[in-house]
């Protein structure tokens, strides 16, 4: 990634603006997971070590522009950030004029940038306001790097000096390890619910991976494309042709694309009524697939033994609910104990890895699901392009 870093500029006693991704799960003002806050602590501490005046920007959720909505307020995040830093973080309430000042050695977190009119439309005037808040603009929000918004692309382009933060650099270096210099064989695991959201990703992956495993709801559409009855499973019939095209593309490129041989089904997910494991040619009309079967898990794990690099996006079953977490857990543990460098991207995948307690055995856990998917699609992220232009 071509970009200036914090090490490339003089930060001593400067006013800095750090665009972070503090879009944490929040319910009734209570933070349900703070890993994104923890991820930016080194960046903020580095600025404080240089006696900087630090202004932090972030979004949270999808509020209505121009309207303060308490459920999307970053106030609880300011409190948690202060606890983790071990010093007070001053919270600057909703202020469309962005009239904020910070003193050297102080950290100020501004209210949700998505409350401001023009943020999501990449308004240049708003971007200029963000840029003018400091001497150096530090982009460290990889999770928002695929959005051309005022606080990301526009502010970077208009700042006096724009640099990439350590987290941003680490994310792009991890991406390069997959895209440009992977240790082969390289395998990809793509799970999740819908083919429609990942067609481009799958197509692009087939251009450079040695093997591709599709799982979750995505796999159901592939099974349907191969002529199997999937009962009342989640499936996208309108994308069967695309699934067929991807199967043919894999064959033409000699890319391994294994499908499940057995699955865990039930008549009802919540109650587990009719829970059983069956072959993929034995699914009944009133049953739905919720996980991979034991034979499939073992087959996939055996295949992945060949890999030296794995990129994993999306769970392999309904991992949030027992007993449909077994497939994701089995493959997760297989990767944790393998020789492969495994990059995990996507909120659900990372959550699953942390839920199973195997995060320390993974090569890298990405903080940006949507952003990383666009990287895997072969796209250049707007913030990455802007940082490169300012380097």
Strand-helix topology:
Blueprint: E1 15-19, E2 26-27, E3 30-31, H1 35-39, H2 41-49, E4 53-57, H3 75-85, E5 89-92, E6 107-110, H4 124-131, E7 136-139, H5 150-158, E8 162-164, H6 166-179, E9 186-190, H7 199-205, E10 211-214, H8 216-225, H9 240-252, E11 262-266, E12 276-279, E13 288-292, H10 294-304, E14 309-313, H11 326-336, E15 341-345, H12 347-355, E16 364-365, H13 369-376, H14 382-390
Helix pairs in contact: 4-5, 5-14, 8-9, 10-11
Radius of gyration, in Å, reads 23 Å
Summarize model confidence as the mean pLDDT. 94
Silhouette? elongated
Major sheet description: 6 strands, parallel
Relevant terms:
391 residues, six-stranded parallel sheet, 16% strand, five-stranded parallel sheet
Concise summary:
With 391 residues, the protein is an alpha/beta fold. The chain has helices at 35-39, 41-49, 75-85, 124-131, 150-158, 166-179, 199-205, 216-225, 240-252, 294-304, 326-336, 347-355, 369-376, 382-390; strands spanning 15-19, 26-27, 30-31, 53-57, 89-92, 107-110, 136-139, 162-164, 186-190, 211-214, 262-266, 276-279, 288-292, 309-313, 341-345, 364-365.
What does this structure look like?
This protein has about 400 residues and is of the alpha/beta class. The protein is built from 14 helices and 16 strands. The protein has helices at about 35-40, 40-50, 75-85, 125-130, 150-160, 165-180, 200-205, 215-225, 240-250, 295-305, 325-335, 345-355, 370-375, 380-390, and strands spanning about 15-20, 25, 30, 55, 90, 105-110, 135-140, 160-165, 185-190, 210-215, 260-265, 275-280, 290, 310-315, 340-345, 365. The strands form 4 sheets. Strands 5-6-4-1-7-8 form a 6-stranded parallel beta sheet, with helices on both faces. Strands 10-9-14-15-16 form a 5-stranded parallel beta sheet. The radius of gyration is 23 Å and the shape is elongated. The chain starts with 14 loop residues before the first strand and ends with a helix.
């Amino acid at each position: 990634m071509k970009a200036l870093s914090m090490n490339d500029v003089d930060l001593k006693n400067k006013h800095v603006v750090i665009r972070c991704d503090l879009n944490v799960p929040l319910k009734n003002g209570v933070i349900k997971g703070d890993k994104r806050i923890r991820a930016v602590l080194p960046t903020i501490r580095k600025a404080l070590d240089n006696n900087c005046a630090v202004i932090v920007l972030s979004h949270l959720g999808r509020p209505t522009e121009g309207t303060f909505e308490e459920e999307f307020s970053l106030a609880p995040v300011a409190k948690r950030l202060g606890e983790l830093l071990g010093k007070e973080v001053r919270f600057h309430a909703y202020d469309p004029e962005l009239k904020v000042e910070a003193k050297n050695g102080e950290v100020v977190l501004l209210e949700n940038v998505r409350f401001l009119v023009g943020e999501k439309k990449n308004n240049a005037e708003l971007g200029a306001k963000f840029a003018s808040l400091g001497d150096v603009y530090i982009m460290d929000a990889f999770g928002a790097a695929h959005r051309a918004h005022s606080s990301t692309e526009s502010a970077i382009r208009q700042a006096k000096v724009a640099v990439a933060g350590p987290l941003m650099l680490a994310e792009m270096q991890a991406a390069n390890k997959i895209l440009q210099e992977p240790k082969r064989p390289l395998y990809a695991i793509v799970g999740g619910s819908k083919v429609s959201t990942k067609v481009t990703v799958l197509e692009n992956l087939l251009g450079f991976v040695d093997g591709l495993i599709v799982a979750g709801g995505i796999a159901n559409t592939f099974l349907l494309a191969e002529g199997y009855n999937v009962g009342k499973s989640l499936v996208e019939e309108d994308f069967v042709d695309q699934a067929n095209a991807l199967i043919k593309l894999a064959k033409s490129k000699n890319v391994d694309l294994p499908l499940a041989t057995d699955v865990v089904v039930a008549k009802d997910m919540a109650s587990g009524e009719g829970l059983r494991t069956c072959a993929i040619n034995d699914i009944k009309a009133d049953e739905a697939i919720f996980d991979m079967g034991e034979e499939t898990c073992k087959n996939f794990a055996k295949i992945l033994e060949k890999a030296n690099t794995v990129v994993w996006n999306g769970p392999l079953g309904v991992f949030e609910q027992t007993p449909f977490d077994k497939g994701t857990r089995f493959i997760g543990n297989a990767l944790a104990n393998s020789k492969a460098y495994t990059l995990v991207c996507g909120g659900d995948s990372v959550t699953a890895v942390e839920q199973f307690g195997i995060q320390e055995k993974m090569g890298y856990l990405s903080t940006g699901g949507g952003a990383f998917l666009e990287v895997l699609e072969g796209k250049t992220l707007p913030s990455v392009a802007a940082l490169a232009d300012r380097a």
